[in-house]
Amino acid sequence: MSRWSKLRLQLFGQPKVHNISQVKKRLIVTFAKIALSTSFVVFFAFSLRLILGEDYQLEVHLKSFENIATKHYELEQVPTAQLSQSVTAYFDEKYLPEYLQKELPFQENKVTQYRTYSKQGMMIYHVQFDFQGVRLPLYLTIGTRSIDFGDDSWDTLMGISMLLIIFLVVVLNFSVKRTFDELMAPVAELSKQLNSGVKGDFTVSEQGVDELKQLTRELNHYQKMRDRVAKQEMMFAKYASHELKTPIAIVLGAANLQAMKDDPEFQTKQRERILTAAGNMHATVEVLLNIVKQEDANLNQEPWLIQTSDIALADFSKKRPEAVALNLNIAKFSQLNFPPVVLNMILKNLVQNSIRFTVEGEISISIASNEITVCDSGTGLCGTNETEHGLGLLIVRRLCITYGWKFEIEDNEHQGCTARLSRTL
């Protein structure tokens, strides 16, 4: 473990694991909190509405005794009167209970609440009425808890409400869990396939969402591309090794031969072999390095006028059978952005690939400013993969991409195949 990893572990602790199971638990807990919070708000609003409704009913009930109190006073002039089990009338403020006298004066024609939520809470309705030409005060009182217009037991009502809330939370959590499982099952299946390392295409069930199916298709495409690139890299390394080993072997062999003979002519011949092999190896290294760097050489290579002397035709046909003719045709004033060493490597690979599959007939090389073709009369592609048809084709394809050309190889109509390079820029 690096020092930075240890320091981060000390500062922040173990990083959180975000697997599907834990995400599901967090989702259920979150929805449970939301459900409880929402249910509490609804329950609180419902309870408050019941309380306010009861207060309104008490006010209406208290005001309904105004006429009864005035008629009672007309029949019997007493300072106080018990009009019902819960309603008391006071015809003089001096007879009000002491704790209510401290709250005087009360607003006329309006119900005043005193300690509404207490057991000793009261409602006082103050009005005035005419008796024998005199305005007399009237105070009607009622306890805030003397009459229950709702259920007889608030505890029972609250218990039932809480049970209903718990039931709704359980049902909601069950529904969320089931929906989450159905939604994430294809993801879990795909993750299992990724971790198992099983070769082959990734698959998801048909019930999966379209975006997940698209992701699966992209994963399969990426896997195939990765396998193809890995195979091409291996072939590239094999080809590069072969291209470098051959001139090195020639240099070593010629150097050893030089020490065996002092003949000037022999020495000159071996020296020429060494220089030629070293030059070829230098050109090969330059081309391979250019491929590895993946530079857009088309942007910094000036076109040059190609001539027959620029093509090392003799080097291409060393292993050519006698029954196979090699023809070169260069269009007049043809200009290419390939450097000579790159052009010769491309043609060498294409011609040697054609020689491998041509027993008799001819191999024709045609060069123009925007197109290069190598056509043979051999066996053709024979249904094999283009990359496997010749290791050198991988180098050709890489060079074409680097210099802004398009490379394709296809069977001829009657016999053989044609490798075609066309300018794309």
| CATH topology name of the domain at 297-423 | Heat Shock Protein 90
Helix/strand-derived category reads: alpha+beta
Spatial arrangement of strands, main beta sheet:
1-2-5-4-3
Which sheet architecture does the biggest sheet show?
A: 5 strands, antiparallel
* Estimated radius of gyration: 50 Å
Assigned CATH superfamily of the domain at 297-423: Histidine kinase-like ATPase, C-terminal domain
CATH architecture of the domain at 297-423: 2-Layer Sandwich
Q: SSE order, as H and E?
A: HHHEEHEEEHHHEHEEHEEHEE
- CATH class label of the domain at 297-423: Alpha Beta
What percentage of amino acids are in beta strands?
15-25%
- Based on Cα principal axes, name the global outline: rod-shaped
Helix content: 40-55%
**End-to-end Cα distance:** 49 Å
Chain-averaged pLDDT: 78
Q: How many beta-strand segments?
A: 12
Low-pLDDT stretches are: 295-299, 384-390
Which assembly state applies to the chains in this document? Answer: single chain
